[in-house]
Amino acid sequence: MPRQVEIFEVGPRDGLQNEAREIPLAEKIALVDCLSKAGFRRIEVASFVSPKWVPQMASSDQVLAGITRVRGVRYCALTPNLRGFEAAQKAKADEVAIFASASEGFSKANINASIAESLARFVPVMAAAQAAGIPVRGYVSCVTDCPYDGKTSPAQAAYVADQLYRMGCYEISLGDTIGQATPESIMNMLAAVCDVVPAQKLAGHYHDTAGRAFENIEASLAHGLRVFDAAVGGLGGCPYAPGAKGNVATEAAHDRLISLGYETGLDRRQLDEAAAMARAMRNQG
Ligand code: HMG
Ligand code: MG
User: Fold this and answer.
1) Burial classification of residue 182, based on how many CB atoms lie within 10 Å of its CB (0-12 exposed, 13-18 middle, 19 or more buried)
2) Per-domain residue ranges of the chain
3) Test site for ligand 1: of 16, 44, 49, 144, most ligand atoms within 8 A of the Cβ
4) Phi, psi values for residue 6, rounded to 5°
5) Alpha-carbon distance 238 to 229, whole Å?
6) Residue of 50, 61, 81 to mutate, ligand 1, most atoms within 8 A of C-beta
7) At what angle do helices 25-36 and 268-283 cross, to 10 degrees?
8) Which CATH number applies to 3-283: 3.20.20.70, 1.10.10.10, 3.90.1150.10, 3.40.1350.10?
């Protein structure tokens, strides 16, 4: 009996946000339109953050306006504050994500706020989203390792995941932001997080800096996780996490999951086309 795993595509956001070259709007739209035909249920395509902090995402409203929406696909956007939420709503994002960190160092570097300040900032975002009927996903970055503070304790990752879940996030995505996690650190972190958030409400968001993302996915599958974030062509990184490489590549994650006896519902040929497009976008940098 095949088991289902969902790959949540983050390439157009997490992937492209870190590219140094200013990517033309038409290329961003073409990548999303190609991905829309691959069978994803959710694609993160936009980020309504300060353009001074992440210039590449400044055209997010135009991306959402320009794509050809496919029925059954939810087009998602990052929203760090109420202003970002209002912009995402205006641009007709189908769902939004708030993003916190399990470590203070990354929280400060990424969103210029302590963890407590960021959680307080998300309360009005959640209220506005709930009033508008827009689902909110929650990210926790640096769940095992932080580029500024070193190792993150599992208890700290669990604390922030719990806070976002209690606030109303329908799913919590656990970020190995700099790709330094090991199956052991993932298992330890998940043992703590699964005590407060059910495994079916968690996603693994593993950057592949040290080439261990597959092992970390397998460790997470053993813990009951069935959603993994990935970026087509292995695009990406985070501008505020020095050394962070791309998310695990979607097409490779798909192949690994199939070899383990899972189904993803994705069209491999369409993934190849999108991966080629993503690699071409990167190589022009
Ligand atoms: P701040 O400087 O503390 O806040 O930034 P501020 O309120 O003083 O605003 C600064 C400027 O930004 C002002 O403009 C605001 O108007 C403007 P100015 O007066 O200087 O001209 N501003 C905005 N503009 C557009 N949209 C907004 C917005 N809010 C304020 N929503 C802030 C705080 C959160 C805005 C800033 O730190 C920021 O934008 N950070 C985003 C950083 C980011 O996008 N990082 C990458 C995404 S996270 C990630 O990749 C990790 C993840 O993949 C998971 C993982 O891998 O772990 C999700
Ligand atoms: Mg990321």
Assistant:
1) middle
2) 3-283
3) 49
4) -100, 130
5) 14
6) 50
7) 160
8) 3.20.20.70
- Cα separation of 15 and 236, whole Å? 3
245 close to ligand 1 (CB < 6 Angstrom): no
57's tokens: 């995402």
Give the chain's end-to-end CA distance (angstroms, integer). Answer: 44
Q: Which tokens hold the place of 154?
A: 């599992």
- Print pLDDT tens along the chain (285 aa): 559 999 999 999 999 998 888 999 999 999 999 999 999 999 999 999 999 999 999 999 999 999 999 999 999 999 999 999 999 999 999 999 999 999 999 999 999 999 999 999 999 999 999 999 999 999 999 999 999 999 999 999 999 999 999 999 999 999 999 999 999 999 999 999 999 999 999 999 999 999 999 999 999 999 999 999 999 999 886 677 776 678 999 999 999 999 999 999 999 999 999 999 999 988 665
Backbone angles phi, psi at 78, to 5 degrees: -80, 140
Count how many Cα atoms sit within 13 Å of the Cα of residue 194 in the half-sphere of its side chain. Answer: 16
CB 254 within 8 A of CB 219: no
Burial of 226 (C-beta count, 10 Å sphere; 0-12/13-18/19+): middle
Q: Structure tokens of 190? A: 């998940």
